[in-house]
Amino acid sequence: MHPRIRDSATKACRNLCGALGLSMLMAVGALAQDIISGAARVIDADILIVAGQRVILWGLDAPERPQPCYLDGKEWGCHAAAKRTLEALAGRGDIDCILTGEADPFGRRHGVCTYGDEDLNAQMVLRGMALAFSEQTTDYESQQIKAITAGVGLWQPGAEFMEPWIWRRANTPGGFR
Questions:
Q1: Which strands sit side by side in the sheet containing 159-160, from one edge to the other?
Q2: Cβ neighbours for 131, distance < 8 A, ≥ 6 positions apart
Q3: CA dihedral in degrees (8, 12, 15, 18; nearest 10)?
Q4: Fewer beta carbons under 10 A from the terminal one: N or C of the chain?
Q5: DSSP code of 129?
Q6: Residue 177 has what pLDDT?
Q7: Main-chain phi, psi angles of 141, to 5 degrees
Q8: pTM greater than 0.85 (yes/no)
Q9: Measured between alpha carbons, how far is 125 from 78 in angstroms, rounded to an integer?
Q10: How far apart are alpha carbons 42 and 67 in whole angstroms?
Q11: Among 93, 89, 99, which Cα is nearest to 122's?
């Protein structure tokens, strides 16, 4: 091979390898930014603050603060019960949240949060304190079936409620959480 052609090929290979390496570093950096960890502060029945980021739990929807629920015909604080459940789950130590999608108009991100190997989103649905939100994912439908079968939380005998997304669309400007 002619030396000039070899030098050009070597230079092209170096440039390509450098560009690929930079792209990989940028991709790893972007992935790292989508995982946050730390102590969680519960601000709603399905919203946490972790590492300064508001995180709406992905794939589920919990009752809204002013949303009425009834148990045996009497008003029941289902939002407060759901919020206490999330506080108990998230308050055991540092949690990790894998964020999905772009921020909403309020700067919040959706995420799946875990404590160790335990999926907090799944636990909220399994305990009947949130509903699987199939408009986002079907990941938590099996947990909802188990909660219904066990008759826990919102699914306990005598409980009446409206799906949070339906209630919110009818009662909240813009339907936002």
A1: 74-76, 69-71, 159-160
A2: 60, 61, 62, 125, 144, 154, 163, 164
A3: -120
A4: N
A5: S
A6: 61
A7: -65, -35
A8: no
A9: 13
A10: 18
A11: 89
One-letter amino acid at 101 equals G
> Residue 106 pLDDT > 80, yes or no?
yes
Please list, in sequence order, all residues whose beta carbon lies within 8 angstroms of the beta carbon of residue 98, skipping any fewer than 6 positions away: 34, 35, 111, 112, 113
DSSP 8-state symbol, 19: H
> What confidence tens digit (pLDDT) does each residue in 147-165 have?
999 999 999 999 999 999 9
* Lookup: tokens for 130: 């949130």
Q: In the 8-state DSSP scheme, what is residue 127?
A: T
Measure the CA–CA gap between 16 and 6, rounded to whole angstroms.
15
Least Cα distance to 78 among 18, 172, 20, 155 occurs for: 155
